[in-house]
Amino acid sequence: MLTAAQRLRRSSDFAAAVRSGRRAGRGTVVVHLTLPGTTGGTPDVTPEPVRGGTEENSVPESRAGFVVSKAVGPAVVRNKVRRRLRHLVRERLSELPAGSTLVVRALPAAAEATYQRLGADLDDALRAARTSRGRRR
């Protein structure tokens, strides 16, 4: 499970990450990654303060959110895909720079994908999103 400080909750946070983040898609997932200090910047919404935490000396945590639409399947399948993705992202979130925002969108192929394939696609997509390819024309 992701901690409260690591989860995206508001639609404005999702929209900012999708709008200004780097997008990379692989077979079962599409990721939108916003790195701090890159062009496009960080989301224009500050993260919610954590209860009991001090804001002066806290390092901004990397945060993640998930989008699993009805195209993936019925509720049972969507929730299974979301749980798998949440577990996979939890292991990889510490590898991202502090203050990063990640939105993982599941594609319909994720419904039949194995856990290993979801992990491989997520790794490939994160690697592609982290490397700068320059501007397209």
Automatic annotation (TrEMBL):
<comment type="similarity">
    <text>Belongs to the RnpA family.</text>
</comment>
<keyword id="KW-0255">Endonuclease</keyword>
<feature type="compositionally biased region" description="Low complexity">
    <location>
        <begin position="33"/>
        <end position="50"/>
    </location>
</feature>
<keyword id="KW-0694">RNA-binding</keyword>
<comment type="function">
    <text>RNaseP catalyzes the removal of the 5'-leader sequence from pre-tRNA to produce the mature 5'-terminus. It can also cleave other RNA substrates such as 4.5S RNA. The protein component plays an auxiliary but essential role in vivo by binding to the 5'-leader sequence and broadening the substrate specificity of the ribozyme.</text>
</comment>
<protein>
    <recommendedName>
        <fullName>Ribonuclease P protein component</fullName>
        <ecNumber>3.1.26.5</ecNumber>
    </recommendedName>
</protein>
<dbReference type="InterPro" id="IPR014721">
    <property type="entry name" value="Ribsml_uS5_D2-typ_fold_subgr"/>
</dbReference>
<comment type="subunit">
    <text>Consists of a catalytic RNA component (M1 or rnpB) and a protein subunit.</text>
</comment>
<keyword id="KW-0378">Hydrolase</keyword>
<dbReference type="Pfam" id="PF00825">
    <property type="entry name" value="Ribonuclease_P"/>
</dbReference>
<dbReference type="InterPro" id="IPR020539">
    <property type="entry name" value="RNase_P_CS"/>
</dbReference>
<feature type="region of interest" description="Disordered">
    <location>
        <begin position="33"/>
        <end position="62"/>
    </location>
</feature>
<keyword id="KW-0540">Nuclease</keyword>
<dbReference type="InterPro" id="IPR000100">
    <property type="entry name" value="RNase_P"/>
</dbReference>
<keyword id="KW-0819">tRNA processing</keyword>
<dbReference type="InterPro" id="IPR020568">
    <property type="entry name" value="Ribosomal_Su5_D2-typ_SF"/>
</dbReference>
